[in-house]
Amino acid sequence: MGTVVGTVEDRRDMFEGSAQTRITPFSSTNQIGNPVVYKLVRVSGDGSLVPATDEEILEVNETDMHIASDACQTVGYLATDEENSEVNETDMHIASDACQTVGYLPAEVIPSRLSQLESSEAINSGLLQYDNVQPYTDQYNEEMSQKVEQEERLGNVHGSQMPSTPPDANIQCSNENNFFEEDQVHHEALLQEPIPFSLNVQDECKMNESDKIERCSNAATSPKETTLSAAAKKPDFSRVRGEICLDNLPIKALQETFRATFGRETTVKDKTWLKRRIAMGLINSCDVPTTNLRVKDNKLVGNQEKSNDVTNAISNDMGGDVRATKVKDAPSSTDHVKGHSNASGNILGGNHYYVSDDYSSEQRAAKRVRKPTRRYIEELSETDEKQQNEKSMIPSKDQRLSAEKSEVRSISVSSGKRVTVTRMVSLAGSEIEVPYVSHVRRSRPRENIMALMGCHSSCLEDKTSATESNLNLSPSQLSSDVVNRDSVENSASRPVQKEFATSDDNNEEHIVSEVDQDMEPEDTESSGNSSDDNNNIGVPIMQGGTLRRKHHRAWTLSEVTKLVEGVSKYGAGKWSEIKKHSFSSYSYRTSVDLKDKWRNLLKSSFAQSPSHSTGNLKKHGSMHIPTQILLQVRELAEKQSQ
DNA sequence: CTTAGGG
DNA sequence: CCCTAAG
Q1: Among A17, A107, A354, A544, which is 20 to 30 Å from A226 by CA?
Q2: Protein chain A, residues 407-466, with a C-beta closer than 7 Å to any atom of nucleic acid strand C
Q3: Are both A155 and A266 inside the same structural domain?
Q4: Does A524 share its domain with A584?
Q5: Is the CB of A596 under 7 A from strand C?
Q6: Using CA atoms, how far apart are residues A127 and A65, in angstroms rounded to an integer?
Q7: Distance A576 CA to B1 C1' (A)
């Protein structure tokens, strides 16, 4: 999990509640260069701050923090005495724009019994943000003012939350990149981003701390830096002040400021937007190193949706302790960590900025968002994976039966990294290392991969499959099956298969010698009574480096017959049923295969019948399906359709 | 995991 | 056949 680092400011005086967990901004001036870091602590009954336990942190990580604030330096949270809340997922909604002050809802406000709904209502009503916070705001503000002044003297103009963070830190903050990439797009939306809550907060702050404001505005004599510092000093009014101060600046100056702040040029000419950006830039700091992740998230909408909800401060799940923490990206990030990182990134990094983006609303509009294809995701991760060594991303779940797929996936990822993936194959007690690829999909790698792998891999692969087939297939079974089949079915299908097999063998011999021997029996037999779905018939073979064929297993007449039979019995669409009953012996035919075959049968049957029942003579290779069967198929089809 | 469809 | 999206 992320490392939680930071110092805790002594603000115990601010809290009068019972045990609480809160996040304190990291404000040590010693650790320059560190982005804002929060430490999770609990305020115990006596007011002392107790470092959060791992357990608590974990809980926090599972918590959804929602920050609706515009320049949210404020962390709102609820705390109750109920440590062991049944609610694992807590949504924290932070609607305050103001102060580094941590808004909180005293335990008293939320009876432990209070339902989530009620809690959220309470929050929505603003209890959380104001009524409770106010009592100590004055005190706090004074404190802050002093602090700010100190900091100012020290020359720490920048970090509001992180006085210790040098300008550079801000500039390098990854959010920023993301922000700007979409500047144009979001521009308008941002302008229209009136966040009710924030506004309220601002007003509130103004009213309550007018004296402070005055101070600030006074301080903000110099256009740029001063303004910034003012904003930085007081998270509370950062935005307000920022706007006020920046208001006087011409667009050009704003742009310059922007550049100075972010180290990036901007063409935006919108004052408001610029001001916001600048303010944000100064206020927000995050170390979400993975740009791609964020992009991904945006695409995935998931986060945005959340953010959106937050913005509207709609539903708040409050239960027991709410804890939040910022997680720094750990190098070895798993999916989990990744997710959390993102979450924190959103929170602290300013993803909430998108909150009211109209841009994303379009995507959200559709109830069912069109999710990016896996391939797309993979591509993304491949592109950016540079930062992460995640390869353990594949859930254990995938690892077993759907091994094919998971393997494929991992391959693609790893291939992007140019990492050679191998796996151990046990062979007669000893283990041999073979390219990971070899077992992909019915012992067949993807076409492109094959191409990349070249002859060598193919050899290995073949070897592997041969090995497996050896282990799995028993000659006796095969032969018996063959006999059975021959008697039952027409001779037509057989020749075709044999043909393929033979040619394959011949070609293969040039490439690999030992494989053939192993395969030989199977080719001859090729009937699928094998317990495994590795059938050599379908084994891809490289011919001059080109993929000649996919694992293809021609449908025999008997199979077709069984299929038709099965359909008539169980009905089309009950492929799994049919497979279970009629194809129990053909392990290589999956329900999908059946479905596909049926589809083809329908196609051919309807295509053919109108004209002639004569020729099932399709162009070549394809099996000649007896007219009778086709008729049967048609009947069934019609029957089914009704 | 199973289906339905597109490729 | 393969690959995916949806249930």
Answers
A1: A354
A2: 408, 441-442, 444, 446
A3: yes
A4: no
A5: yes
A6: 18
A7: 10
Pick from A70, A93, A76: nearest CA to A21: A76
Show Cβ contacts of residue A9 under 8 Å, excluding neighbours closer than 6 positions.
A24, A25, A27
Total residue length of chain A: 642
Tally of domains within chain A: 3
* Strand C and A550 CB separated by under 7 Å: yes
Cα(A353)–Cα(A391) distance, integer angstroms: 31
As a whole number of angstroms, the distance between CA A579 and CA A570 comes to: 10
Strand C within 7 A of A368 CB: yes
Q: What is the pLDDT of residue A279?
A: 63
**What's residue A508's pLDDT?**
32
Distance CA A590, CA A63 (A): 41
Q: Which helix (H) or strand (E) holds A344?
A: helix A335-349
Map A229-249 to HEC letters.
HHHHHCCCCHHHHHHHHHHCC
Q: Can you give the pLDDT at residue A611?
A: 57
CA gap A360, A347 in Å, rounded: 17
Select from A217, A265, A268 the least CA-distant residue to A245. A217
pLDDT computed for residue A586 by the predictor:
85
Verify that A304 and A436 share a domain, yes or no.
Answer: no
State which residue has its Cα closest to the C1' atom of B5.
A596
The nt closest to A554 (CA vs C1′) is C1
The encoded tokens of residue A516 equal 């053939």
**Residue A393 contacts by C-beta under 8 Å, 6 or more apart in sequence?**
A334, A335, A413
Q: Is the CB of A489 under 7 A from strand B?
A: no
What is the structure's pLDDT at A212?
A: 34
A105 and A204 co-located in one domain: yes
- The pTM assigned to this predicted structure is 0.31
Q: Residue A594 has what pLDDT? A: 92
CATH at residue A598:
1.10.246.220
Report residues of chain A scoring pLDDT below 70: 1-249, 251, 253-254, 257-258, 260-261, 264-266, 268, 271, 273-275, 277-550, 608-623, 642
Q: Distance (Å, rounded) from C-alpha A122 to C-alpha A140?
A: 24
CB < 7 A to strand B: residues 1-40, chain A: none
Q: pLDDT tens for residues A421-470?
A: 333 333 333 333 333 333 333 334 334 333 344 333 333 333 333 333 33
Which residue, among A280, A327, A305, has the nearest Cα to A69 in the 3D structure? A280
A102 touches strand C (CB under 7 A): no
Q: What count of other Cβ atoms lies within 10 Å of the Cβ of residue A395? A: 9
- Amino acid A154: pLDDT: 37
Which nt is closest to the CA of A408, judged by C1'? C3
Through-space separation of residue A595 CA and nucleotide B5 C1' in angstroms: 11
- CA-nearest of A164, A161, A127, A129 to A144 is A161
The whole-number Å distance from A574's CA to C5's C1' is 19
What is the pLDDT at residue A534?
A: 38
Q: What are A591-609's pLDDT values in tens digits?
A: 999 999 999 888 888 776 6
Domain span including residue A578 = 557-641
Q: Is A323 found in the same domain as A466?
A: no
Give the CA-to-C1' distance from A596 to B7 in angstroms: 13
Is A434 strand, coil or helix? strand
Task: Write the pLDDT tens digit of every residue in A332-367.
Answer: 333 333 333 333 333 333 333 333 333 333 333 333
Nucleotide closest to A592 measured between CA and C1' = B3
Which ranges of A10-108 would DSSP assign to H, the alpha helix?
A: 54-61
**Inside any domain, residue A62:** yes
